[in-house]
Model the fold of this input.
Amino acid sequence: AQSVAQPEDQVNVAEGNPLTVKCTYSVSGNPYLFWYVQYPNRGLQFLLKYITGDNLVKGSYGFEAEFNKSQTSFHLKKPSALVSDSALYFCAVRDMINTPLVFGKGTRLSVIA
Amino acid sequence: KAGVTQTPRYLIKTRGQQVTLSCSPISGHRSVSWYQQTPGQGLQFLFEYFSETQRNKGNFPGRFSGRQFSNSRSEMNVSTLELGDSALYLCASSLATSGVTGELFFGEGSRLTVL
Done:
């Protein structure tokens, strides 16, 4: 069965600094990986996904993620953090058609001015 | 295009009662999934419906049930509520042909508090 781990419950970063939110996955087949963001009292918003091809995926709001097959990781990155990036971030994976998208437990990002 | 709409947004129930939550997917989306979100457990998959049929089911007791109507709208029901059922219930829709690669589009959730 597929699974996702987000090893950090909380990440703190100063505004203007680069940020990284970590994600590792476990699947039996090819991984299809997603990042979502959740702002307070809101649903999840899609940021980006890796399906195939280039290991560096670019998404919404200046976020990007790097797929690393050997390390089974899909870390979310942004070159320069904004206070408005403060939110809860979820990594998710699916490896087979018509199976549920499995989410990690989430990482709370706090960007300090 | 309207997004995924969930009603009600907030509700308070007491132990032993039952609750029904509603979800209207994005127009044209035929798959609807439900997730339970709690601070300690993150997002846990409840079930997925496609064309009025339950396609997948998570590891929840039988008190949790759902259905999908011919217009793709979905409802989930929780009977005999327990304190531990307090959570944000999220509905998400996706295109029928999305397969493994399509993303889910989430509603804003229904926050259930059980007293």
Q: What stands out?
A: Chain A touches chain B at residues 32, 34, 36, 41-46, 49, 51, 90, 94-106 (CB under 8 Å).
